[in-house]
């Protein structure tokens, strides 16, 4: 015997008791009469007693059936209430959303727009996990994540919000003192700052406008887990670094940093909204995804603008 109750049999019995016949119950439930009959017989065998007296012309509840009918109907009402509540949660953006977002990007570009999200969906609440480390959203119980990557994890469902470019930058003071490199190979002899959470590896990959590829392993005085930490070192003219455009843009615009090797492109990735599954996304997840797509798809950090 199954350890689980026979919910289907109880539901069909409750409907037969309510409608007064197998045929009427079958029509209401949109199943065949034999399906209802088999379910009732299975339930009777399981419960060890006859629920219905059956004749060719009449169907009536036994004394045992009378005792079970009300309880079976109550179970059905409770199940219907659960389904209605779940449907409401699925259709209306409400409840908590646990989302992981890279630290610097989240503080600079996500947190400032959250008041709009809260105003738009007052019954929604966010549990915001800010960290540059890539979390396992399935294992750690997150509903979603914003990720900046060249290729998102194929085991997740990803919605691209916008493209994100990486720039190789240095300060005017650095370039005046050390000169401007003319080829990626020259970086091997330069002080370079490194980002510990690069999606692929610590290798910088360059692609020339002509299509030629070059790889460099940077080395230098600092390796960080947050790209913002490189900015003061860069501004002091100590080293070269790779920065995402959402950080580098303002410094390139005001001239405090300069892009070097502009004819060589670094990683061209994107900002993605990722979820564990594409199936049955609740309204709260769809709402957050649509909000980010609406507000971040044409970012103001672009340089040159």
From TrEMBL:
Record-linked InterPro entries: LysR-type_TF_proteobact-type, LysR_HTH_N, LysR_subst-bd, WH-like_DNA-bd_sf, WH_DNA-bd_sf
Highest taxon listed in the record's lineage: Bacteria
GO molecular function: DNA-binding transcription factor activity; sequence-specific DNA binding
GO BP annotations, alphabetical order: DNA-templated transcription
Keywords: DNA-binding, Transcription, Transcription regulation
Entry keyword annotation includes Transcription: yes
Record-annotated HTH lysR-type domain positions: 5-62
Pfam family of the protein (one): HTH_1
Record has DNA-binding as a keyword: yes
Stated family: Belongs to the LysR transcriptional regulatory family.
PANTHER family in UniProt: HTH-TYPE TRANSCRIPTIONAL ACTIVATOR TTDR-RELATED, HTH-TYPE TRANSCRIPTIONAL REGULATOR
Name of the molecule in the record: DNA-binding transcriptional LysR family regulator
Origin species: Cupriavidus agavae
Lineage start: Bacteria, Pseudomonadati, Pseudomonadota, Betaproteobacteria, Burkholderiales
């Amino acid at each position: 015997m199954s350890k689980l109750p026979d919910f289907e049999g109880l539901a069909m019995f409750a409907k037969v008791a309510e409608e007064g016949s197998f045929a009427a119950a079958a029509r209401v439930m949109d199943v065949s009469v034999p399906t209802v009959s088999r379910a009732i017989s299975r339930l009777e065998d399981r419960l060890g007693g006859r629920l219905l007296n059956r004749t060719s012309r009449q169907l009536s509840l036994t004394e045992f059936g009378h005792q079970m009918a009300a309880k079976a109907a109550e179970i059905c009402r409770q199940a219907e209430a659960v389904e209605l509540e779940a449907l409401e949660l699925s259709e209306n953006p409400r409840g908590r959303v646990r989302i992981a977002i890279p630290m610097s990007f989240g503080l600079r570009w996500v947190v400032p727009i959250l008041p709009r999200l809260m105003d738009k969906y007052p019954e929604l609440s966010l549990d915001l996990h800010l960290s540059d480390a890539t979390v396992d959203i399935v294992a750690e119980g997150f509903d979603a994540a914003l990720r900046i990557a060249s290729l998102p994890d194929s085991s997740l469902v990803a919605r691209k919000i916008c493209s994100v470019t990486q720039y190789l930058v240095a300060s005017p003071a650095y370039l005046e003192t050390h000169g401007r490199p003319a080829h990626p190979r020259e970086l091997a002899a330069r002080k370079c700052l490194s980002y510990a959470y690069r999606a692929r590896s610590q290798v910088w990959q360059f692609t020339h406008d002509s299509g030629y590829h070059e790889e460099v392993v940077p080395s230098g005085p600092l390796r960080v887990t947050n790209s913002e930490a490189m900015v003061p070192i860069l501004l002091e003219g100590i080293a070269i670094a790779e920065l995402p455009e959402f950080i580098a843009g303002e410094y390139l615009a005001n001239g405090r940093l300069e892009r070097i090797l502009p004819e060589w492109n670094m990683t061209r990735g994107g900002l993605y909204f990722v979820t564990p599954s594409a199936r049955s996304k609740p309204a709260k997840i769809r709402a957050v995804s649509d909000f980010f797509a609406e507000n971040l798809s044409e970012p103001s950090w672009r340089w040159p603008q």
